[in-house]
Write a structure and sequence with these properties.
Chain lengths: 380, 254
């Protein structure tokens, strides 16, 4: 029996099929966790060489719903790690991993351009070694480099400055957190990033780290051994609101639905902070709509588990497209989210479903910034 | 069958901000990231594919300083069996003839069927080492290969891409030097654990090679002159893309 099967409790599997039934990609790809486990238990001497495992978004629904405590997602990541060790992975994922090793980000961009999101109007302090700040804003790769997400990053910096938060960033020395690296099965690179990032954080003095992406939040909180407070930015902003340090006046009259990111919601049980921020923004609380599949049942946007660098072939619509159609059908005009990957996949889906004139996808920090600093734009 | 793969450590220059060193003959290396030359990566993969098919050794060989061991370890992690590094402090000072001589001096005594090189190095883009090496080894060669089909260990069918999209097919008998273009295969990934394990493998270092005299001397590197007709659009992506569309329409291109 292979150690991967024992470690992930595969022998406990009763083939109930809740993993496959809950899997957000099982309807549009050939991945069936139940079938994978069945085959592997029947042929337990060797691990399956199935390529279907690369469709997995590591949303963790399978593992969460398993009544027997089988670590289904961890098993899939384990299978990936064996394929990574053999070196035969999709070129787009290979390039992302090599880029992380060389440049500290998966987007193939040079390290020296990591702070280019900071424009003339954005006031951000970059920490020098040994310097102190109350809050360290860990920017993350996608918020640092993606032109669309950079807007959210700038919005958050503006909100923090407005609330007089003593915050700073690491700058060009900041590197990838490794959350997606681990989920792509590159466990050696992940360990290396954990070591290097842990040593890097020790060079500065701060009390709290906030992240923009729930993916970074997840790995720093659950997979590193860090001795400071780690919050997702929605949790931090909610705290500022409660302490009276952040003022938000209700100004949004549109109908807004919140899309729960898997790595904030079902993986870290944070469903309320983003919703409470949204309630402050809406002139009428009833305009905060809910998807049929919300909270721990939220439909994964397919941006996790390295899938940002891997397109799977399918004739069925993408989950993000289903999500946008669902949002339209309940009458939402804005899909709010709090994850760069969700924002990118949903934004693409708005374009591919030709819904630009009906619906917008907005990160919560951009919604707050619009409300605070450019109140007119939303009304246009 | 045994292959030798010549690899080179080059700076990644595509997106980096390049600064020319004060002597005007090389780039400032401080902020540059170095990696395995792209075409050499495809050459290495081709050798590894042959090894999977026909067994045998894959020897990687490179000229350079100790930092070159980074790319050598990566090649070993991918499956290369042996490694040779011919020591030289600053390869930017060597011309193609000198590099080919240094490589030939080591390769001539190896038991090999094919020598692979990348079709060109992304830093100096000479495309010369492969052909010069074949000459010095007194074996045949074929350049710019984009496809290789092989049924037995003694010969292969090689495709080259010509101007106008023509594909020319050749049969060549080994031993031979083949210079490989990017796109010939899909290079595999070297995992970090694989690279760590490979650091235990031995790299045969040639410490004090006889350096042949350069026949080509680099005079000066400079930035290209700014084009007078270039217009750099500024603004948000939305602004610049609509401005670009306007210009293309005006010129009747779209």
């Amino acid at each position: 029996m292979h150690k991967l099967l024992i470690k992930n409790e595969l022998l406990g599997c009763i083939q109930c099929g809740r993993c496959s039934a809950g899997c957000p990609v099982s309807l549009r790809t050939a991945l069936s966790p139940r079938k994978l486990i069945y085959k592997n238990l029947r042929e337990s001497k060797k691990l399956p060489k199935s390529q279907d495992i690369w469709s997995c978004t590591t949303c963790r629904t399978c593992q969460q719903r398993c009544p027997k405590g089988v670590s289904v997602m961890d098993y899939i990541i384990g299978l990936r790690s064996y394929q990574v060790e053999r070196g035969k992975i999709e070129p787009t994922m290979r390039d992302a991993l090599e880029s992380i090793l060389k440049h500290g980000n998966p987007w193939g961009r040079p390290r020296e351009k990591r702070t280019q999101w900071i424009d003339d109007e954005t006031d951000v302090r970059i920490l020098a070694e040994g310097e102190e700040t109350d809050v360290l804003l860990y920017v993350g790769c996608t918020p640092a480099y993606d032109p669309e997400i950079q807007k959210s990053t700038r919005a958050l910096a503006k909100i923090l400055n407005d609330a007089d938060v003593d915050f700073a960033i690491i700058g060009n020395d900041e590197s990838c957190c490794g959350n997606e690296v681990k989920r792509m099965g590159e466990l050696g690179l992940f360990e290396m990033l954990v070591e290097e990032n842990t040593a890097l954080f020790k060079k500065y003095k701060f009390n709290t780290m906030i992240t923009i992406s729930p993916h970074c939040y997840n790995t720093f909180k659950n997979e590193y051994a860090l001795d400071f407070e780690i919050l997702h930015y929605t949790q931090f902003l909610k705290k500022l609101l409660d302490e009276g340090k952040l003022q938000i006046s209700a100004s949004i009259e549109k109908k807004v639905v919140f899309h729960d990111p898997c790595f904030l919601g079902k993986q870290n049980d944070e469903y309320d902070a983003p919703r409470e921020l949204l309630k402050y923004l809406l002139t009428d609380e009833d305009n905060l709509l809910e998807f049929g599949r919300n909270r721990e049942r939220s439909l994964c946007c397919e941006g996790g588990g390295g899938r940002m660098w891997l397109e799977v072939e399918s004739e069925s619509p993408r989950n993000a497209e289903i999500r946008i159609d669902d949002a339209k059908s309940i009458g939402a005009e804005v899909v709010a989210t709090s994850c760069p990957f969700c924002q990118l996949t949903l934004n693409d889906a708005v374009k591919t479903t030709k819904s630009e004139d009906k619906i917008r996808v907005m990160d919560i920090c951009s919604l707050i910034a619009e409300n605070k600093f450019e109140e007119t734009e939303m009304e246009e | 069958m045994n292959s030798v793969v010549c690899i080179k450590r080059v700076p990644e220059t595509a997106e980096a901000t390049l600064k020319i060193a004060p002597d005007g003959k090389k780039l400032e290396e401080e902020n540059l990231v170095f990696s395995l030359n792209d075409a050499d990566n495809y050459a290495l993969e081709q050798a590894l594919l042959l090894q999977e098919e026909f067994d045998g050794d894959v020897t990687v060989i490179s000229v350079g300083p100790p930092e070159t061991d980074e790319i050598i370890r990566m090649a070993l992690a991918k499956g290369a069996t042996n490694a040779i590094r011919i020591h030289h402090d600053d390869i930017s000072k060597l011309d193609a003839n000198a590099v080919a001589s240094l490589l030939a001096e080591q390769i001539k005594d190896l038991d090999y069927d094919v020598v692979f090189t990348g079709a060109f190095a992304s830093d100096d883009a000479f495309s010369l080492v492969g052909t010069m090496l074949a000459e010095k080894l007194e074996i045949t060669h074929i350049t710019m290969a984009i496809e290789m089909k092989q049924d037995d260990e003694d010969e292969a069918e090689i495709s080259r891409e010509l101007e106008g999209g023509l594909i020319a097919k050749y049969r060549i008998k080994f031993p031979a030097v083949i210079t490989v273009q990017t796109g010939m295969n899909e290079p595999r990934y070297a995992s970090i654990l694989g690279i760590k394990r490979a650091s235990q493998k031995e790299v045969d270092v040639v410490d004090d090679p006889t350096i042949p005299e350069n026949k080509v001397q680099l005079e000066k590197i400079s930035y290209p002159p700014e084009g007078k007709k270039a217009e750099i659009l500024s603004g948000t992506p939305e602004e610049t893309s609509s401005r670009l569309a306007e210009i293309l329409k005006q010129k009747g291109i779209i």
